[in-house]
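Protein record

Derive tokens from sequence
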Amino acid sequence: MSITYRYADLPLETLPERFNAPTLRRNKLAPLHTGDVTPDFSLPAAQVINAAGLPEDIHGRSRPLVVAFISFHWNGYAEKRLQELRDLHADIQVMGGDLLVLSDEDSTFFNILTNKQPVPFPVVWDRQHKIASQFGIYSTTDPIWDRISGVNEDVPTPGIFVLNPNGKIVFDSIDLYFEKNIPARDLLSAVYAAGHKSEKAA
């Protein structure tokens, strides 16, 4: 008599190492969106990869801030996203804003992604995905490999946000399935509008 087991029938400790243990409590990603107020987050000096243009006080800004997340483990998508950010950086500044890029890896991996070419904007290592979690684009219970083939690391979902000087999100773009470009026109319009509203308020 033969007995056929399904993986779901086996105790977790008996699963082969190459299989990820199934998530018992699955909570879907819940990204922040336009209208939400961002939580307080810090940028420890030890985690700064590139300090060029880094705001002295992330919470005492007078200019809009574009926050973009990036991961070396996004493979070709990461290279495309990095080039988009390079192309957008000068326009963001012209519109009155600043750009902050948060990498899920330290300088070793980020320098591989950039081919050791300098970037003109500040980059900070988001250690243990702490800030990505606060923005709702990373969750251990909703792993990215369930949606995207070829990504096998525990990484955040691509996301880019525009924050006004009060920390309120005035634009967001979340790419759950790695199929979008950054909507540059809408992003830049949001930066411009947020900057001019703060000037009028002052």
User: Anything to note?
Assistant: The chain has four helices and six strands. The chain has one domain: 36-201.
